[in-house]
Design brief:
Chain lengths: ~525, ~270
């Protein structure tokens, strides 16, 4: 009898998954899907959905939850395609979920070596999809292709040797027929790269070394052999401009982090934004935010492609609120500096010069006894995404107002061991706080802020409903995008270190955030 | 329906396989042996690192302060060298001891070598009479009005059940004669003034951007939405504890410190 009832229930037929490159390129045509890390290639983390708006967001309620089979935090930014959601989740899993019911369709788990050395936990921040394949960069620095229908492994390639400190935590980026991915391990003296793999075969198509090899231009920005252990990782997802066929990808700190004595010079291409030809990996330009960084201010966070007016002239820009405390707008064709200014308190530079290079103040480097510097090691912002709303011209960023006491220590390189050269502890003399800030995207000028009791470590999403979704500690909330007023909040009961997304299914808009080891999916009553 | 059973069977198989792998992995896991450097030069570097990373809590010579003294042959959380390295590297969960993410593995070994060398320094006995101190705690000091030991006493001040394990005698003395200089990290006393209703004064239990929770001196907890609050007042004095300088004689304070220093294990 039960079986009869079950059979007579309406059947929800899930669409056959297929996401050719053109669908991602033309993501504007499918506002209900979330096809790549930041929804589209621009990195704006903006949802064109407007069913949930400033007038009804107070009625937002939990619709379903999904819990990881592990107590580690979920940090994924889900992909949603035609009613199916794909997530990465601890422990080292990829899952496909029916977006209507929250029920699991398949799971894949990677067996991970036990002797990994990681700076910051076994985290993963998302996936890529292309055609009928889901792509996952695992914590032991493999890139894995999974059948989107079943989770079966199509190919699995090793990007680098985890035993020497390499790992991977970011979502890959599917571009045309290639899967582009970064790597992590900046605290272990690795040598960074950005890779592209043939999406069908897993064969490596190109590699851009984020530290130039001996004889290449820029290698002389390192002294001696320091370039061999100079880090410059690429652990957060970049963006792509189809019009110019350019991939933009950020790089991390030089190693050792807090002791630059062995690596005099600018240490290219650490803390840079790099523009690469998507087909060949050839460098078009680079811009270095923090030359000779000694504060561990990675510049890996997802940059953003926007168009705006600068002194009355339309400009195509790439913008970023950098971990070093400055906001930057660059010309995305040439890489030239357009504008920049501090968006949080900073005490290490007197400003930016005409080319956008910071003018470091004397006595602003780590010392053996400790040097007090704003911002802290965690930066004015960090890996998590900012958001942009073209209607308001606002760049929304979750900021940290806090300082660190930076120590300089010894740096002895041993493969696979920490290679830090010091450290930092948070300064408690002034109580740290956080804020969501709306900046004029073309200039970095503050338009409004919503102050938070303590700094967050989570991303933002703007929506066509006039909302900015964000998180603070274990709270998930929505602000008015025009004014910054709080309109809705939810206590998630677990720390939020993730980016929100939104999708539409069967005529209903959903908003998603990972909190603790759970994924929470909200919709209107 | 058959497909459903197959899926359940497959899921169970996956769970069993996972459990097997987990057990096999645990069985295969052997704790690596740790050898601390022993040269005078290494220990000297370890002492320098200790000054930078550890002395703030454990005192410049490891004599203890906000953190416990390390001048003793046996460390509670680090009975062997591997455990000591792990404690320095990862911290101690549930305590104020953080991990030393800033140090290289070799630096951790050198620091551990210096800490071990402290165990050979003769430990100074704590002066005073703990039995007399216990009597002062109960009577003249009336400490139990605000503090509790093994579940007996007030809740306005920090629990003292294992205070001798956590703080040095010098720090305990300071907290008795100059309480404002020895307020535990995270201990914030305040008064919440709501838009309607009575004010509440107590210790902040939790706070985020949207709400605040406070426990008053009777142990009763209150929770407020920030939108319902007029203001939060923080008194000039961080600690409500009065100074006992002049209230207790110097020998009495010495006895009281001896008693508190003896409180090391939960009964």
């Amino acid at each position: 009898m039960k079986a009869l009832l079950w059979l007579s229930a309406p059947v929800m037929l899930l669409a056959q998954i297929n996401v050719p490159y053109e669908r991602i390129r033309d993501a504007a045509k499918e506002p209900g899907n979330w096809l790549t890390y930041s929804r589209d290639y621009s990195g704006q983390r903006y949802s064109p959905l407007d069913q949930i708006d400033t007038g009804n967001v107070s009625k937002l309620r939990i619709s379903w939850m999904h819990q990881a089979n592990d107590l580690d935090a979920i940090e994924t930014s889900p992909i949603v395609v035609d009613g199916t959601m794909f997530i990465s989740a601890p422990p080292n899993m990829v899952e496909a979920i029916d977006a209507a019911t929250g029920r699991t369709l398949w799971t894949y788990q990677k067996e991970i070596p036990r002797d990994l050395r990681l700076c910051c936990g076994r985290v993963n921040r998302g996936l890529a999809i292309l055609g009928q394949t889901v792509y996952y960069a695992s914590i032991d620095a493999h890139l894995i292709a999974l059948d989107a229908r079943t989770g079966a492994v199509r190919w699995d390639v090793t990007m680098a040797d985890y035993k020497t400190g390499y790992s991977s935590t970011g979502a890959p980026l599917a571009v045309k027929d290639k899967i582009i991915t970064g790597m992590a391990g900046g605290e272990f003296g690795v040598r960074g790269f950005i890779d592209a793999y043939d999406a069908k075969t897993g064969k490596r198509a190109w590699r851009f070394n984020t530290i130039p090899l001996k004889g290449e231009a820029g290698n002389d920005s390192w002294t001696g052999e320091s370039w061999k252990t100079g880090s410059a990782t690429s652990w957060v997802t970049g963006v792509f401009d189809p019009e110019s066929n350019t991939v933009y990808w950020g790089t991390g700190n030089p190693g050792p982090d807090w002791n630059g004595d062995s690596r005099s010079g600018d240490n290219l291409y650490s803390d840079c934004l790099i523009a690469l030809d998507a087909d060949t990996g050839a460098k078009k330009w680079h811009f270095q935010y923090t030359p000779h960084d000694v504060n561990d201010w990675d510049s890996t966070q997802t940059p953003m492609l926007i168009e705006g007016l600068v002194q009355g002239q339309p400009r195509k820009m790439v913008v970023l609120a950098n971990r070093n405390g400055f906001y930057y707008a660059l010309d995305r064709t040439t890489g030239k500096f357009i504008a920049g200014k501090p968006y949080v308190k900073q005490t290490w530079a007197s400003g930016l010069d005409e080319a956008g290079r910071p003018m470091r103040l004397p006595d602003s480097e780590p010392t053996v006894d400790g040097k007090l510097i704003w911002p802290s090691l965690a930066g004015g912002s960090n890996w998590y995404s900012s958001a942009y709303d073209a209607k308001t011209g606002n760049y929304y960023v979750n900021v940290k107002e806090m300082a660190g006491i930076y120590h300089k220590g010894e740096a002895d390189y041993r493969p696979g061991a920490f290679f830090n050269g010091g450290g930092q502890h948070d300064y408690q003399g002034e109580e740290p706080y956080g804020a969501v800030r709306a900046l004029d995207a073309a200039t970095g000028q503050l338009r409004w802020e919503y102050k938070l009791h303590f700094p967050s470590h989570a991303g933002l999403m703007a929506t066509a409903g006039g909302l900015v979704f964000g998180s603070n500690g274990s709270s998930f909330f929505a602000l008015d995008a025009q004014k910054g007023d709080l309109l809705w909040r939810f206590e998630a009961g677990g720390i939020i270190n993730a980016n929100p997304i939104s999708f539409m299914n069967a005529g209903k808009q959903y908003v998603v955030i990972a909190a603790g080891h759970a994924l929470l999916v909200f919709a209107l009553d | 329906m058959r497909a459903g059973y197959d899926m359940i069977a497959a899921a169970m198989k996956r769970v069993l396989l996972f459990a097997w792998f987990a057990i096999a992995a645990i069985a295969a896991d052997t704790e690596p042996k740790v050898k601390l450097p022993s040269s005078r030069a290494d220990i000297a570097i370890g002492e320098k690192l200790f000054q930078v990373h550890c002395a703030r809590c454990h005192g410049p010579k490891g004599e203890g302060s906000r953190g416990p003294t390390l001048i003793r042959a046996r460390l509670v959380h680090a009975p062997d060298d591997a455990a000591l390295v792990a404690v320095i590297d990862e911290g101690i969960r549930g305590t104020e001891m953080p991990g030393a993410g800033a140090m290289s593995h070799h630096e951790i070994l050198e620091t551990a070598a210096f800490v071990r060398s402290l165990g050979k320094v003769p430990q100074q006995p704590v002066p005073g009479d703990p039995a007399r101190g216990a009597e002062i705690y109960r009577t003249k000091g009336n400490c139990g009005a605000c503090h509790s030991i093994s579940g007996e006493g007030g809740v306005a001040g920090p629990d003292l059940t294992q205070i001798g394990e956590m703080r040095s005698p010098a720090y305990l003395r300071e907290s008795i004669v100059d309480p404002q200089a020895a307020v535990p990290e995270g201990y914030v006393r305040l008064t919440v003034v709501p838009k309607a209703g009575s004010s509440v004064t107590g210790v902040r239990v939790n706070e985020d951007s949207f709400s605040i929770q406070v426990r008053d001196d009777s142990g009763r907890s209150y929770s407020f939405w920030k939108s319902d609050i007029d203001r939060v007042d923080k008194p000039k004095d961080k600690s409500p504890m009065p100074s006992f300088r002049g209230q207790l004689s110097d020998p009495e304070i010495t006895d009281l410190v001896a008693y508190l220093a003896s409180l090391k294990e939960r009964k």
